[in-house]
């Protein structure tokens, strides 16, 4: 009887879409062996934080509902410099080709998927494309870290990478962070942040800069990792406001992840109020699909602190605890409690499944392209029969071009930011030239 009951149970599951492997400069005290001075006067040690993410995430499960089934990893070696800090003249530990291919080689778990990490400014989108083409089924997104690149997210140097994402229908995960002053104290004597508003002093990863870039590529899903880290609730609110603006204007496809949002003393907060606020606000806008579960494992409390000798706490327990605290807060909220199971399912699993794997959004873009082409032909006065034939031909042509591009013979992408030379399918482009973001352009 008990077995039957168990068989009837449906367990939840998690997809962690923000995970790393590789090396990082971990904050340390001066007496930690090999600690070096950092530009801000502290100390750091260089450590390989690589771990088996599934072992870590599932090592201390309090409930099967918290089991991580898929994870999407990027290589910190393509983001970390050979000395602490983000100085432009200091090289990255690994270049785009070596770092991403090494990650691919090491990744043997079929449930582990990868971001290809780009290095705008020093690398090239062509180099990254070659890496992605080696294993297109494994690379399900692109990762860009403006802060580590020391390159504002609205720089034109990101555009070839966004074109690559558009062409391959890949979401792009950005590190997002705000600049803040931490010089003010509250009544209890704790330092509290003040957002820096001066446009010239914004963080390179500022949500507004990411939005500026994302608006040029409205067909590319852009994820703001950490939902604006760097100033607690103030930074998260700034990122949320940017997402709300993009939804109101319908001019970018912005997402966010909930890594590093509600923490106390570098541990998961008992009261994850910024996460609950984020969920409630986006749910009211019918945009709950924009929120994704990510952890940033093995950074911070999931490995960085242990590597520096600051903590002996088990990363597996912390990870399980974090999921429980967020889920409990959702269940306890009077507004969310009516739809708890669905909300948790969306944030921890379904949203990532749709964005990275099922990709209905990519199909929608193709469908819109066909509809928009047909509409434009209709306007031009061609008969209905002609429209059907033309739309059919456009569909076949579009699909064929996409498939061919996957085999590296042709290039096809959506909505290039500038007028690229167009050849081969000039006629289709003439009919479809509407300025709409859902129109296909072709290029040889
Ligand atoms: Zn990260």
Structure overview:
The protein has 444 residues and is of the alpha/beta class. It folds into 2 domains: 14-358, Metal-dependent hydrolases (TIM Barrel, Alpha-Beta Barrel); 361-443, no CATH class. Helices cover 40% and strands 20% of the residues. It has 15 helices and 17 strands. It has helices spanning 2-8, 53-57, 96-106, 125-134, 146-149, 159-168, 207-216, 233-249, 273-284, 304-307, 315-332, 340-358, 360-379, 384-406, 426-432; strands spanning 14-21, 23-28, 36-37, 43-48, 68-75, 112-117, 139-144, 172-177, 180-185, 191-195, 221-229, 253-257, 263-264, 267-268, 291-292, 411-414, 440-443. The strands form 5 sheets. The protein has an 8-stranded parallel beta sheet, with helices on both faces. Strand 5, helix 3 and strand 6 (112-117) form a beta-alpha-beta unit. Helix 3 (96-106) runs parallel beside helix 4 (125-134), helix 7 runs parallel beside helix 8 and helix 13 packs antiparallel against helix 14 (384-406). It is globular. The site of zinc ion (ZN) has 5 residues, from strand 1.
